[in-house]
């Protein structure tokens, strides 16, 4: 559990309207619409979650519920955090079967999965490990962008 920071102006464009662009009478409706879009995006990942829900306040999302695995929990955090307009994710989720946590890495200009694998694992050819750890959010190992956060799972013994 904790607070995770993300690059607010990078990420998937889920929101049709930003709260700050709405007139005062429709701010709550925009917030609800944006929360539904984010919930739909998490649901589409088909992760093993129980009692999952989220709350959106400005550029901060708080996630609640139980994930079956540490990987599923981390994918939820990344899916909502890698959304344009989101700066922080407050993780209030639990994990049914605790496992070692992955590291999070912010992609920088010029990065590739093989370069990141070399940095973390000492072997550029281990990039599929990072790609698999970030599916289904990543669809192609060559399509990453600066500011995106990725899961870097521990090396399995």
Structural class: alpha+beta
Radius of gyration: 16 Å
Give the overall pLDDT as a whole number.
89
Shape: globular
Question: Strand share of the residues?
Answer: 15-25%
Tally the helices: what do you get? Answer: 4
Return the string of H and E elements.
Answer: EHEEHEEHHE
Give a quick account of the main beta sheet: strands, pairing sense, barrel closure.
Answer: 4 strands, mixed
Specify the oligomeric state: single chain
Spans of at least 5 consecutive residues with low confidence: none
* Helical residue percent band: 25-40%
Amino- and carboxy-terminal Cα gap: 25 Å
Q: What is the strand arrangement across the widest sheet?
A: 1-4-3-2
**Beta strands, count:** 6
Description:
The protein has 157 residues and is of the alpha+beta class. The protein contains four helices and six strands; from the N terminus they run βαββαββααβ. The protein has helices spanning 27-44, 70-81, 113-121, 127-133; strands at 2-5, 49-57, 60-67, 88-95, 103-106, 149-152. Strands 1-4-3-2 form a four-stranded mixed β-sheet. A two-stranded antiparallel sheet has the order 5-6. β3, α2 and β4 form a beta-alpha-beta unit.
